[in-house]
Design goal:
homodimer; about 220 residues; alpha/beta; five-stranded parallel β-sheet; 8 helices; 12 strands; about 40% helix; DNA-binding
Amino acid sequence: MKMLVVDDDRDLRELIGFTLTQAGYLVMKAADGLAALRTFESESPDLVVLDINMPGASGFQVCEAIRKRSRVPVIMLTVRGEEEDLVRALELGADDYLTKPFSPRTLLARIKALLRRAGMENPTPLAAGRVALDIDEHTVRIGNSDPVRLTKLELRLLQMLLANAGHTVSSDRLLIQVWGHRNSADRQLLKQLVHRLRQKIEADPATPQLLQTAAGAGYKLIVD
Amino acid sequence: MKMLVVDDDRDLRELIGFTLTQAGYLVMKAADGLAALRTFESESPDLVVLDINMPGASGFQVCEAIRKRSRVPVIMLTVRGEEEDLVRALELGADDYLTKPFSPRTLLARIKALLRRAGMENPTPLAAGRVALDIDEHTVRIGNSDPVRLTKLELRLLQMLLANAGHTVSSDRLLIQVWGHRNSADRQLLKQLVHRLRQKIEADPATPQLLQTAAGAGYKLIVD
DNA sequence: CCCGTCTATAACCGTTTTGTAACCGGCACG
DNA sequence: CGTGCCGGTTACAAAACGGTTATAGACGGG
């Protein structure tokens, strides 16, 4: 699922990009309206996250231009209290909006709701190698075995690892993504969660084949 | 899609009516609160546009009365600067508001956003597997058994599950769809409603075959 | 106005999930 | 060697969850 993130604020753009990448989406970024439209043309993303307040071509103009040629879901970012912006955004065909500041989790929730409404939800469950995740059902299948039920946190952890399958994900990132903001000294939670997840998905939890430790760095999911 | 427009200002009422008719909606009108409630009763519109400043029963009273019997989306019209009205309208359960003057396009944008939020953009299928829902009669048939009468909330819940038959629907989504926006801490209501619905549609409510729990995720309707 | 139905709210229980602490063993380092 | 850090494991407490029952208020039809 390709997504286009348009925001002139570099930090926010990167944050959103990071969030979506972690969630398993393919992300493209644009810093201004012109670049946004160019990228939109060449990449045809499946969803657009669009800031309103931008120098040059404003979010409105970009939204209008996009709507002239596509019904792709558009989420607009507004600052709190600018009711008029909001109305205008909806008028121009935006599908949803988010007032800054917002949490990454909120953004994800909205995006998912939007994709669902647009009938574009992941047709194939998130999968890599022998690991197939069913987000709706809260289950994983390893190879052809029976689906295993996961808890909310286990699901989130596995989702993160799956989104970066084959690559190490640092403990800090995992902590932030799974629990939201949290003291990075709180490694015990992650230790525990990894342990519990291994009990569920590893043939022999004592010698992990899938969820391996990258000492001093984090964890990674092995896919062949 | 039936809509009720309530405003004592004849011109504005006609303008709104015209706008909505042009947009393809079926429009009913009322010039005062009393007529509004009468029409609401007899016609059960799918959305209400309601002016606050009216002689006789004010928009507030009408809104309150409507909310006592329905979760139908309500948009209230206020004059600019009357913040108190606005707050009170939202407290009374209005779903959105518009400050006069506004453009027809703004009104349409808001209405569409509201319908989308209420998940009313398209009709839902009435049957899947052994479950057949009769929306008008407020009844279900399971297989060839006698129809069972459902309450308003039970109907809405089942409708939602039926629309996603075979897939888990999250508790949050059910809460929003059945009750409108509601504190997600209010799981008790859902618990209750599921329980009562199971009593009605399950052969053995203690071991549900149709309405199953997806622990930590939500509920789903099993269709073979 | 009364009565039956429907809905909201609370309480209780057993189970699952999550958070916290303690302990173990390997390993690097002085 | 001893010490400290890291990750894994075990154990247990706290919180959340889901099912159930009970009760009171709201609603709607006579």
